[in-house]
């Protein structure tokens, strides 16, 4: 029985769907070996990585980059690149892959912003 919060967080976590009677139990990496900490990390990585998709889609759809701060994206991309390097150095595939995808999406926002601003300065529009 878990005596501390740390003990509780490190206990294997069975996804609720697999525990319900009449349901087929999960197999593979998401089975009984997933801890609550791992689940939290997977959900967090998915949320932060996918948060860039709407921005990229909006820029591609409208060509409007007026609200994009290149300095913010530059700092963010540098940080994400360092997290990606950290994941590589500690051989943590989850950290590396999540940050690789985020890095690609953040670079896409920056590239589209720079491209659109160059086109606007020349009197053209990316959305056309």
Strand composition percent: under 5%
H-E order: HHHHHH
Q: Give the distance, in angstroms, between the N- and C-terminal Cα atoms.
A: 63 Å
Query: What's the main sheet like?
Result: none
Decide which structural class fits the backbone.
mainly alpha
Poorly predicted runs = 15-26
Number of strands: 0
Q: If helices are DSSP runs of H or I spanning 4 or more residues, what is the number of helices?
A: 6
The helix fraction, in percent, is 55-70%
Principal-axes shape call: elongated
Radius of gyration: 20 Å
What is the secondary structure topology, with strand pairs?
Layout: H1 5-10, H2 16-19, H3 36-50, H4 53-62, H5 70-89, H6 93-121
Helix pairs in contact: 3-6, 4-6, 5-6
Describe what this molecule looks like in 3D.
This protein is mostly helical and 128 residues long. It is 66% helix and 0% strand. It has helices at 5-10, 16-19, 36-50, 53-62, 70-89, 93-121. Helix 5 packs antiparallel against helix 6. It starts with a helix and ends in a 7-residue tail after the last helix.
Structure, briefly:
With 128 residues, the protein is mainly α.
Labels describing this entry:
128 residues; 6 helices; mainly alpha; single chain
């Amino acid at each position: 029985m878990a005596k501390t919060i740390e003990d509780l967080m490190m206990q294997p976590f069975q996804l609720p769907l697999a525990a319900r009677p009449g349901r087929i139990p999960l197999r593979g990496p998401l089975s009984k070996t997933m801890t609550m900490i791992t689940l939290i990390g997977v959900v967090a990585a998915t949320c932060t990585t996918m948060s860039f998709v709407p921005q990229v889609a909006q820029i591609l759809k409208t060509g409007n980059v007026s609200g994009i701060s290149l300095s913010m994206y530059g700092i963010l991309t540098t940080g994400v690149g360092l997290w990606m390097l950290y994941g590589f150095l500690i051989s943590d595939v989850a950290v590396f892959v999540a940050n690789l995808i985020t890095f690609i999406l953040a670079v896409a926002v920056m590239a589209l912003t720079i491209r659109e601003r160059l086109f606007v300065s020349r009197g053209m529009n990316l959305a056309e």
